[in-house]
Structures are given as C-alpha cells and as structure tokens.
Design brief:
The complex is a heterodimer of chains A (about 400) and B (about 240). Chain A has about 400 residues and is an alpha+beta fold. Chain A folds into two domains: about 180 residues, no CATH class; about 130 residues, no CATH class. Helices cover about 55% and strands about 20% of the residues of chain A. In chain A, the strands form two sheets. A six-stranded mixed β-barrel of chain A has the order 4-5-10-7-9-8. Chain A has a two-stranded antiparallel ribbon with strand order 2-3. In chain A, helix 9 packs across helix 11 and helix 11 runs antiparallel to helix 12. The model of chain A has no long low-confidence stretch (mean pLDDT about 85). With about 240 residues, chain B is an alpha/beta fold. Chain B has one domain: 3-Layer(aba) Sandwich (Rossmann fold), CATH 3.40.50.300. In chain B, the strands form two sheets. In chain B, strands 6-7-8-3-9-10 form a six-stranded mixed beta sheet, with helices on both faces. A four-stranded antiparallel beta sheet of chain B has the order 2-1-4-5, with helices on one face. In chain B, strand 4 and strand 5 form a beta hairpin. The N and C termini of chain B lie far apart (about 35 Å). The relative contact order of chain B is 0.19. Classes of the chains: A alpha+beta (about 400), B alpha/beta (about 240). Chains A and B meet through helix 1, helix 10, helix 11 and helix 13 of A and helix 2, strand 6 and helix 3 of B.
Chain lengths: ~400, ~240
C-alpha cells in the first residue's frame, strides 16, 4: 500500500464517520487555536513591556542623593543635596563606557498660557539629558550651548503639557509662564507614554539647569552646584553592574566617606529593572503557552481514544485486509494516516481559529498581540507530532493483530 | 509433478483458560498442483484449523509446511502476508467483503497490497469480475448484491492476483442450494483451468464436486480418498 492509497483509504473511513471525526478533530482545533492565540498574546505583552522599558532608557543608571540622619531621624531620599555637577563631570571623565551623564534638578510648578493653567513636573537639564534618556524632539529644536550656559528662559514641553495648554496647536515659539516667569517654548518632545509604574512621562517641562537653579527650582541648602539626580547612560554592551560599582567607588572617594560609613547617595540600575520585567513577561508567555499546550495534549488523547475505538470496530476489516495480503506495516500506515489527517485538519482549522481569535482580541478587547511565523509553525508542528504520537499506539495495536483472530472477531 | 502443498506432522493447540485444546494432532499430507480437494468432518474436527494453517492465517505449533517448494514454517508476519497475497486466494462462508467499498474496489484490494499501479488494478479487477459474470455490477456495494453475487465478488478477489491456490472455508454455507450449485460449477471451471482448490465443507453434495476427499476427526486425518468425476449436468443431482 503506497502513501496515496493509505491517505485515500484514511479519508474514506473518516468520511464514513463524519460527526465523530469532526468532534475528534475539534480537540486539536481548540488546542492549536489556543496555542497560537496565547503565543500571540504573550508576545504582544512582551513587546509592550519592552517598548515601555525602552522609553525609560536602557543601559541607564540614575544616581539620587542619599538620606541624612538627624538626631536618629532618617529624613528620606534627597533630604540632603550630596550630588553636584562636579560629581557628574567626574563620572563623565573617569568611568569607562559612559555615553552621557546628565545632572538634573526636579521640581513642580504651575504653568500658565493665556487663560489656561496646568501643574507639571519641571526638570532643569544640561546638554546630555535628552541623549541619556533616549528622548528626541518632535518639533522645534533643543537648547543650544549659549542658552544652557546663560540660563536663558527657554523651555521644551512634553506632549501632555502641549495638549493641556495649547489644545493640540503648535506650542513652539509661544511664550508661557512657569511659576510666573515667562519662558519661550523652543521645542516639543516626542511622546514617550507611561513608564512601567504608570506615570505619564509626557507631563513635563524641560528648562536649562542654570535657569532652574537660579529662578525656578532653587536650592534650599544653597550648595552652589548641587543637582537633584544624575542620569548616566552607558554604551550598549557595557556591564551596568560594573559601571555601578565603579561610580560608587568614585563618589565615595569624592565625598570622602570612611569605609565604615554608608553611601550618601543611591544608584538605581534601570537595566536590572528592565531585565526583571522582561523575564517576567517571558515567564508569562511561557505560562500561557504551557496552558494552551495542555489543551493540545487533551486533543491528542481524544484522537487516541477514538482511534482505539475505530481499531476495535474495524477488527474484521483488518482481518480481511490481512487475509488478502496486507502486511502489518500496511495496516500501521493506514491507521496512522487517519490519525495524522485528523491532526492536520485540526491544525489547519485551529490555525484559522487562532489567527481569527488573536485578531478579535486585538480589535474588540484592545489587547496587544504579535503573531509570529515561528509560533504558528510551532503550533502546527506540535499538532502533527501529537497526531503521530497518539495515533501510533492504536495503529500498532491494529498492525499486531493475528489475522485469524481479527477475521473471527464479531 | 511436485507437490504444491507439503505438510508434515502439523499440530496446533489452543489454550482456553485452564484447558488445552488439541485442534490438530500431527497431520501429514501432500496436495499437488491442480487438485480439487474437499475437507470434511464434524465441527471441532480440526478441518478449519487445518485450512487456516494452509492459508497462513494461523501458525502451527509444531510440524512443517512447504508451499510451492518454499518453507513457510517460521516466517514472520510480514513474509506471511506476502505469501497470502501472491500464492493464494480466500473464499469465506461470510464473504468478508469490505462493506463500504464497491465490488470493483473489493476485487482490487489484493493488488493494492501487491503495489500494482491504479490503472492496472482497475483493468485486472474488471477482467475477473467479468469472469465471474458480474461485470455489470462492478460499482455496487456488497449490501446491494445477493449472497451468491457477493460470493462471486469474493472469488474474483481471490483470483485477481493470479494465485495457484484457492482456499475456501464453507463457501456455500450461507447460500441456497441452487446458488450453491452455480458457485460449485464456477469452482469446477476454475479447477479445470489449472487452479488448485481446497475447500472445507460438511455437506456431501458440495464435497462431491471435488476429486479428493479428506476426512478429519478429533484433529486427525482419518480418511483420504479420491473421488470419481461427477456427471456434468447439475440438474440430475438430487
């Protein structure tokens, strides 16, 4: 019996039991559909996380001032301004692999334009800030060197601020007041979206560091060149842990901390947060795929069950075929072909179900999905493997029957 | 002329729970090419067991069996299937046709396993259906045919791979007298064309068509005698 004979014979017997074949293959359809949908959902979630994390800036360290203990009361992060622009300069010069070091001041304040007003976060920045945060300008321009040096009253605004104060019209070239000081808006920042903690990163105004220190944010403790935090961006491929260690060593030296003293600063390694989030999303995808695989497995057991019934029902047919010269391997091929055809039909229909289901989730539920060719091929290959694996035992059972017993079976 | 079938001390026992049944106890005989042999005996005499052993559907415990000069004893399932396919055809009491296949497809079945190309299969199956007088019914399914017609489809199937031997187990058991006679005339014609026929029956009328009678009792061959040629006109038989 050649391949096409086995295939035709299998199709004929599947057609003879249409409802049974359809119900059996339904298990595979649901299994393949579930695997494809879950992989698409998992991949979509992973992609979303990756995009959010990228907006934070990858390969990034953020250094915050440390705490101060006053009469046994710990006053919390930033309670003392231990970081300065000189620290930033030292990091820039002495730490290997840094791409950008951006000292910044942070404050909040009321913005007014015409009869609209809005409270936003204000950062005082230098030239390294936008590169350090992977941020680009959507419209207009960034600050030039003289504006940064001279403490000019110029500002860059985030998308949210532009929406709130300018209602979608072009804000560049307009003058708004920041804490009652008029600023000229020179550029609109590209939208960055929420960060992974749900904060709107576009609700922001950037002004030159010197301007901020002098007029807007000010420094309570009055240290001349102190800054609120320092963003450090490392080159791709550098080990951020190593960089963290060398910056810590550098700052301890500069701050003249004795070995038994605690750091008077904190370094937050965003790369590690990124890695952890990505690991979590990978684990989520794996979990979804594993759950979906269980339904594929159940579908396979359904095939095995029905094939066993079919072999028993057709014992006499097997006997007749053997009597006229069917070899055990011919019988094996015939029943295996049935199981594989059932699985393949299930895989193809499941493919349609999975793609349709994924698109429906994206369209109606607003989920982010990504359908990858390798995921689709994986699901179809898994279904075929299931067919062979679960079809093998019943087919072998049929092939091993003694001809005389099979012929006499009622 | 050498023997087509050479059987020596063939034995077969079955275990039914605690009991061991000696279905066949050391049977030896030769059957030559072109013989028409009827095997008779009461139920449980071992005649069907013997036929199944000849047909390689069952395997003897001890003894030897040579077919066409080839030793069959000890061959594996794959090889036995090839022997059944090329060297013999079966006709059963209950016809044993595939119910969902047409007469044509049933007749083609041995050729499928002999790996004959489809066009050649169709041609040869049609030829054999014409030989048994069923050319017009090639596309009918077994359920659409009478018992006699179904048995003729089975004979066409047995003949399609041109085997030297036909084994028939009570081929007329499910047929009325007139149809039985027609069928036996067909067997006689095939035998006249040189095909060796071994059939099991318990009806003397049917056995009378053969030229040699083997009688089995309690698993042993108790009688082996030739039979004179029958009168040619079946209408004169009671």
């Amino acid at each position: 019996m050649n391949l096409s004979d086995a295939g035709l014979s299998a199709l004929r017997s599947l057609r003879a039991n249409k409802l049974r074949s359809a119900l059996t293959t339904l298990g595979i359809i649901i299994g393949v559909g579930a695997v494809i949908t879950m992989l698409a959902v998992g991949e979509g979630a992973g992609r979303l996380v990756a995009e959010q994390l990228k907006s934070l800036g990858s390969n990034t360290l953020v250094i915050f001032p440390g705490t101060v203990t006053s009469s046994g009361v710990r006053l919390g992060a930033g309670s003392r301004n231990t970081l300065t622009e000189n620290d930033a300069q030292a990091i820039r010069e002495e730490t290997p692999g840094v791409l950008a070091v951006a000292p910044a001041l942070r404050g909040t304040g009321q913005l007014v334009y015409g009869n609209l007003n809005w409270s936003s976060v204000i950062y005082g920045i230098d030239a390294d800030y936008l590169p350090a945060r992977d941020w680009s300008i959507a419209r207009g321009r960034g600050f030039d060197a003289s504006e940064l040096r001279g403490g000019d009253k110029v500002a860059l605004v985030g998308q949210t601020v532009a929406d709130m104060l300018f209602g979608g019209t072009d804000p560049t070239g307009q003058t708004m007041r920041v804490k009652n000081v008029p600023f000229t808006i020179v550029g609109l920042l590209a939208p960055k979206g929420q960060n992974f903690m749900g904060q709107d990163q576009d609700d922001v105004v950037l002004i030159p560091l010197n301007t901020a220190r002098g007029r807007i944010i000010g420094q309570a403790q009055g240290r001349l060149r102190s800054v609120g935090h320092i963003n450090v961006k490392m080159r791709d491929g550098t080990d951020t842990r190593e960089a963290e260690a060398s910056i810590r060593e550098l700052l301890r030296q500069r701050h003249r901390l004795a070995p038994d003293k605690e750091d008077d600063f904190n370094i937050r390694n965003l790369s590690e947060i990124v890695a952890a989030e990505q690991a979590a999303s990978t684990a989520l995808s794996a979990l979804l795929a594993a759950i979906a695989s269980v339904s594929l497995l159940v579908g396979g057991i359904g095939i095995m069950n029905i094939m066993l019934v079919s072999v028993t029902e057709r014992t006499r047919e097997i006997g007749i075929r053997m009597a006229v010269g069917a070899r055990p391997r011919d019988i094996l091929a015939q029943f295996l072909a049935e199981a594989i055809i059932l699985s393949l039909i299930g895989a193809i229909a499941g493919l349609a179900l999975g793609l349709g289901g994924s698109m429906a989730l994206e369209k109606w539920a607003g989920w982010s999905i990504v359908i990858r060719l390798d995921a689709v091929l994986l699901a179809v290959a898994a279904a075929s493997t299931v067919g062979i694996f679960f079809g093998w035992y019943p087919a072998r059972k049929a092939a091993r029957m003694a001809p005389i017993d099979a012929l006499r079976y009622d | 002329m050498s023997a087509l079938i050479e059987v020596r001390k063939l034995s077969r026992t079955y275990r039914l729970g605690e009991i061991t049944v000696h279905a066949l106890k050391g049977v030896s005989l030769d059957i030559r090419q072109g013989e028409f042999v009827a095997i008779m005996g009461p139920s449980g005499s071992g005649k069907s067991t013997f036929l199944n052993l000849l047909g390689c559907l069952d395997v003897a415990d001890t003894g030897s069996y040579r077919l066409n000069g080839e030793t069959v004893t000890g061959l594996q399932a794959e090889a036995l299937a090839g022997i059944r396919n090329r060297h013999m055809g079966f006709v059963f009491q209950s016809f044993n046709l595939l119910p969902r296949s047409s007469a044509q497809e049933n007749v083609e079945l041995p050729l499928v396993y002999a790996r004959v190309p489809a066009a050649e299969r169709r041609r040869r199956a049609r030829e054999k259906l014409a030989l048994v007088g069923l050319a017009e019914r090639a596309q009918h399914r077994p359920a659409q045919l009478s018992g006699g017609q179904q048995q003729r489809v089975a004979i066409a199937r047995a003949l399609v791979n041109e085997p030297p031997l036909i084994l028939a187990d009570e081929p007329t058991g499910a047929l009325d007298t007139r149809t039985s006679q027609e069928l036996m005339d067909l067997f006689s014609r095939l035998n006249g064309a040189g095909i060796t026929i071994v059939l099991v029956t318990h009806e003397p009328d049917i056995a009378a068509y053969a030229r040699r009678i083997l009688v089995f009792r309690d698993g042993e061959l108790v009688e082996d005698r030739p039979l004179p040629a029958r009168p040619t006109d079946p209408e004169t038989q009671p």
